[in-house]
Amino acid sequence: MSNLLPVYDIKNLHLSKEGFLVSEFEPYLKRHQKLLQPHGHSFYHIGFFTQASGGHVIDFKKFDVLPNQIYFLTPGQFHQWDFKGKVEGYVLNFNQDFFQSFLHQADYLESFPFFEGDAKNSVINLPVAVSNSLAALFLEMLDLNDHLERKDTDHFRVVALKLFFTVGRFVAKKSGVKSATVHNSLIRDFKRLIEKDFKSTRLPKDYASALNITSNYLNAVCNKVLGQSAGELIRNRVILESKRLLVNNTLTISQIAYELNFTDNAYFSKFFRKYAGINPEDFRKSYY
Fold first, then answer.
1. Do residues 22 and 141 make contact, with C-beta atoms less than 8 angstroms apart?
2. Comparing 109-113, 130-134, 198-202, 207-211, which segment has the lowest mean pLDDT?
3. How much is the pLDDT for 16?
4. Please, which pLDDT band fits residue 131 given cuts at 50, 70 and 90?
5. Rounded Cα gap, residues 7 and 40, in angstroms
6. 192: β partners
7. How far is CA 75 from CA 10, 41, 62, 259, in A?
8. CA 153, CA 156: separation in Å to the nearest integer?
9. What is the distance between the alpha carbons of residues 42 and 210, in angstroms, rounded to a whole number?
10. Where are the alpha helices (DSSP H) in the chain?
């Protein structure tokens, strides 16, 4: 394994000039064997298994690979496959601005829980009926791609959005959570702020101030909706970024501490050990 975790750009995978790729899984895997190694990428990636076994890792969380399973990755997430035997299904990749010119709300995709960049919401096991519906939508996208003209790109986007809505309805029905609530909107805004400022801002009261609410209210909503405190969400994002940087073996622990705005190496190591349950050096060794 190389010392540097590869991060693949959309151009590395020979996407169309329109900024997307749809493929059956098996030929995609044969073309891109490098993706079997730990990697990240700068685009959205969706994998749908109709027949498969083994495991995969998303942002250091392990999942079984199962038939009738779909997973969603957002730009920047860590990923690794460990398949056992033949893999059948479909892949959809698209760049970050593929839907922005089509949708009035630029961040619309984030309204789907599986596009929030949280690994625990990224993998969804589907009933056969929903799985069959998704397979039909992937086949429709493949057909559009084979005969693609510029005017058909919007048609392709519509079919992809239908896929997202189909999965979104299943997730909402299964969880019993209505997506359009004041609390969920607040959590979404809070997570966006964390993503933007987690390296420099660590206190819930500072985020609460930016959201024009009290820190007590922010904590109460986080606990009610997510079962976590606001401070936990912030710390978890710092730990996740720490892990992403630690698997890049070219960076020293001191450089990582500096990148994440810790005062010194010792404070970073203490923080990481407390919340990740392992020393930074030992975590790194587990990947090399």
1. yes
2. 109-113
3. 60
4. very high
5. 4
6. none
7. 10, 6, 19, 19
8. 5
9. 28
10. 25-31, 128-146, 152-175, 182-197, 204-210, 215-226, 230-246, 253-259, 265-276, 280-285
Neighbour count for residue 120 (Cβ, 10 Å) = 11
- Nearest C-alpha neighbor of 194 from the set 97, 79, 117, 270: 117
Close Cβ partners of 239 (under 8 Å, ≥ 6 residues apart): 272, 275, 276
Domains (ranges, CATH) in the chain?
7-175 (2.60.120.280), 182-285 (1.10.10.60)
Say how far apart CA 147 and CA 143 lie, in whole Å: 7
Q: Which residues contact 18 (CB under 8 A, 6 or more apart)?
A: 98, 148, 150, 153, 156
d(CA 136, CA 146): 15
According to DSSP, the residues that pair with 139 across neighbouring strands are none
